[in-house]
Amino acid sequence: MDAPGPLGDFLQARRAQLRPGDVGLRDIGPRRRVAGLRREELAQLAGVSVSYYTRLEQGLSRGASAEVLDAIARALRLDVHEREHLERLADASRRAPRVRRPRPERLSDETRDLLRAVDDVPALVLGRRTDVLAWNALGHALVAGHLDPLAPQDPARRPNTSRLLFLDPHSRELYGDDWTRKVRAVVGNLRIAVGRHPEDPLLAELIGELTMKSPEFVELWRDHRVAPCDAASYDLHHPVVGEVTVTQQTLAIARSPGQSLIVCTTPAGSPSEQALLLLRQAAPATSAVPPTPVPASR
């Protein structure tokens, strides 16, 4: 029998997280052998046959219609982001896999200009696998001052924020009590990335590495939560300037699909703003933003 695949894994995980009482079904008590909904219960709620739903969850049926997916999404009580993820997984399951090693992500000239334009706040550009494609001097000093500021310019040396958060002690200490909330948001974003790019071998390698090296990642990944990491505030414990609270906002870069600009802001006049001013003074003067290439004269 074929492996369930990403679609089947997602359906199984979300079904296991629902209790009969959550959807108006009667729980028969201690004799129940599964904590979540049974397949037949989910099929009943979605209005599909048990055999069809079983084949879908086992990866044996790959042609679910939009109507069926909508019914299953309602039965599983998925939110809008989880529904989009379900649709992407179903669409990917219909296509024959085309595994090829992608080219390194590139930073456009417009994105370089944008990063320099926000030089007064910490900022990073992340690729679709959470690789750091570029950061400004303050962004580097805030989140990874222990790393080479020029590392993002070499695709073979680019830091990866997911890898740092789970495997680098500095990053764990930086987020302190907010570390669990931060990595949960990162895993939710990785789930979205896998749904959008199911054939990306480098993304699969990253997931595999984190699975092998981090029990915390395994636990969060098994949960199959899907949520974009768009904006959140974190209390950071910085080794140079001490306590600083920042709001991290994720902005999509229009001409570079899959890439995002992460900016960290603080309230005007706050102690955290003063801490970033001190950090700016302490940061190396060398620019971490690669220069925009100058067109050759003809």
Write a structural description:
The chain is of the alpha+beta class and 298 residues long. The protein folds into 2 domains: 90 residues, 434 Repressor (Amino-terminal Domain) (Orthogonal Bundle); 174 residues, 2-Layer Sandwich (Beta-Lactamase). It is 46% helix and 11% strand. The chain contains 13 helices and 5 strands. It is elongated. It starts with a helix and ends in a 16-residue tail after the last helix. The mean pLDDT is 85.
What is the strand and helix layout of this fold?
Elements: H1 5-16, H2 39-46, H3 50-57, H4 66-76, H5 80-94, H6 109-117, E1 123-126, E2 132-135, H7 137-144, H8 161-167, H9 169-175, H10 179-196, H11 201-213, H12 215-222, E3 231-238, E4 242-252, E5 260-265, H13 271-282
Antiparallel strand pairs: 1-2, 1-5, 3-4, 4-5
Helix pairs in contact: 1-5, 2-3, 2-4, 4-5, 5-10, 8-9, 11-12
Mean pLDDT: 85
Low-confidence stretches: none
CATH top level of the largest domain? Alpha Beta
What is the name of the CATH architecture of the largest domain?
2-Layer Sandwich
As laid out across the biggest beta sheet, the strand order is 2-1-5-4-3
Q: Kindly, what is the distance between the CA atoms of the first and last residues, rounded to a whole number of angstroms?
A: 62 Å
For the biggest sheet, the summary is:
5 strands, antiparallel
Count of structural domains:
2
CATH topology of the largest domain: Beta-Lactamase
- Rg calc: 22 Å
The overall strand count is: 5
Helical segment count: 13
Shape: elongated
